Structure formats: C-alpha cells, structure tokens
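Continuing the series of single-chain predictions for the mutant panel. This is the parent chain; the variants come on the following pages.
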Amino acid sequence: MSQKVIGLVGGMSWESSAEYYRIINERVRDRLGGLHSARCLMWSFDFAEIEALQHADRWDDATALMIEAAQRLERGGADFVVICTNTMHRMAGQVQAAIGLPLLHIADPTADRIRAAGLRRVGLLGTAFTMEQDFYKGRLVERHGLEVLVPGEEDRAVVHRVIYDELVQGRVEEASRQAYREVIARLVERGAEAVILGCTEIMLLVRPEDSPVPLYDTTTIHAEAAVDLALSEYGAAIPG
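Parent structure:
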C-alpha cells in the first residue's frame, strides 16, 4: 500500500508535536506491520515567536507565518497538511486558501467521533483563544450540530495559565491535574456529556480517570485521522 506524505505544521509546542510524530508512526506500524513507519514532513516553529504574536493579538502576522509553513510543506512534497495545534486553526481557512493541498481540520474528526458515540453536549477545554473565540466552537456548532459548553471566566483563566506556564514548557504538575479535574466536574454539572481536550498539550496532563465523562483528546484523534488519510486509497476527499 502506497502511503501519502503527511505535512505537519508543528512546534506549537514541540511537546505536543512530538506526540503527533509518535502516534502517527505507531499507528502506521500497527496498520502495516513490520518495519513500516510514516512518510511525513514537519515544519517546526520556534514557539516563542508564535506565542508572542498570539498574546499581542497580531493574528495577521501569525497567519502569514502559518501560510508560509504550509507552502514550505507543499513545496517539499506533502500530500496534505495537518496543523498540530488547536489554537492555530484560527487561520485554517486562510491557510487552506493559500495552498493546493487538502488541510485536515482538527475539529472535524473529533466531532465525528463524538457524534458517532451518540453525544451532543460537550465541554471544551483549551487556550483562552480556543475557548473564547468562535473559530473552533463555531465549527463544532454550525458544521457538526454539537452544543458546546466552555468553563466560566475563572476556570478559563486557570486552564489557559496551566497550558502556557506549565505544559508547553514540559511541566506536568499534580496540583494542576487536580485543578483540571475540578473544571471538568463543573462542566459535567452543567450538562456536558463529554469533554474535548481542545489543546494539544492537555493530553500530557489529563487522563481518562480524571473525568466522570468521556474525554476526546484532539491530539490522538487528529493524528489517527492523518494516518487514515495517508493510508487511504488515493485519498478520500476531505470536507472543506
């Protein structure tokens, strides 16, 4: 079976990008056996540059960098593009418009799994940008018909702080795991039937046993969807 080349836009942060690389290669080995591994390319950012643009609200500059990264992957021979972060799907539409390759949006395979499980009302954890802006929630609601709950203001601040002050720096603190458990519990009290780990680093901290409802880890789901596409016959069309 011929593999397509996965183009990974990574480095946001490298900790979660390393998980993408691991999961993708493990799944290819599981599917094909033997010594098989994934055919992939990765463009990895210096995350300090991206983080500074995010928090300075310089999204146009960040978009230009993301487009450049995707175009580098296209020139390098990628068959489709995967943005290895939830937050930077804020500019997924602009990136898709600037390249001639499909872009596998992180929200779509996540929503597909949730709907396949018969669930509709979901909690969303992520950076403040992901939880508060409409680029991610709106896609889940409008394209997939989900009802999305986000934490209250204080809980959103805690979730965001832990991501940037700890997880992207490779720190996994037990106190933060407990804080996330409490945030999840409050979402469940409000009716969440499942919780989306909508930041690719959260899977480093939160485990299934930390939640009374199913957790949907976007890192693993996105990586597995990339493998499905890479091993599909000639590449099934990706919804735009």
